[in-house]
Design a protein that fits this description.
This protein is mainly alpha-helical and about 160 residues long. The protein has 5 helices and 3 strands.
């Protein structure tokens, strides 16, 4: 019985929200000054020269870690003393872990900076083109002018 009551409440709330949103949308539809644009942020980020450079740098850093691991394997396999093997394993584990953590933090920080820069450029271009609202393309089912190609020219 509780489940039926909960389902009825959820359905009622959904209907009320749908009608409310519809009324808001209809009231804004009469506003001719409203210009809405959409932007495919993932496309802008993927095609950004900054992101491409960052990926290349990240891959080089991953290669350095792989080389470090290979060197560790060689050094450990050449050792016969179990105590020294344990010490070397611990040393390399800490070194690799530290380097990987530092590398990941740097990568994420730079990626966030690039993302912030791209969003800033989107906002600036939208203002220049007199758009009131810019929405992510993947969230819009219908409407809005896609300005991704216009912004992509500036970001490259």
């Amino acid at each position: 019985m509780n489940k039926k009551l909960l389902a009825a409440i959820i359905i009622s709330a959904s209907i009320i929200m749908g009608v409310s949103i519809s009324n808001i949308a209809l009231s804004d539809a009469n506003n001719t000054d409203l210009k809405i644009a959409t932007v495919d942020l993932s496309e802008l980020i993927t095609n950004s020269q900054s992101v491409q450079t960052l990926k290349i740098t990240h891959e080089k850093q991953l290669d350095e870690i792989e080389n470090m691991l290979e060197q560790a394997r060689k050094e450990i396999s050449a050792e016969s003393d179990p105590d020294k093997i344990a010490q070397l394993e611990e040393k390399y584990r800490k070194d690799v872990s530290s380097k990987k953590l530092q590398m990941d933090k740097s990568y994420n920080d730079k990626l966030l900076e690039i993302d912030k820069n791209i969003k800033s450029q989107v906002a600036q271009k939208a203002k220049e083109l007199n758009y009131n609202i810019v929405l992510p393309k993947n969230l819009v089912l219908y409407g809005g002018e896609d300005i991704t190609p216009i912004i992509a020219k500036d970001i490259k």
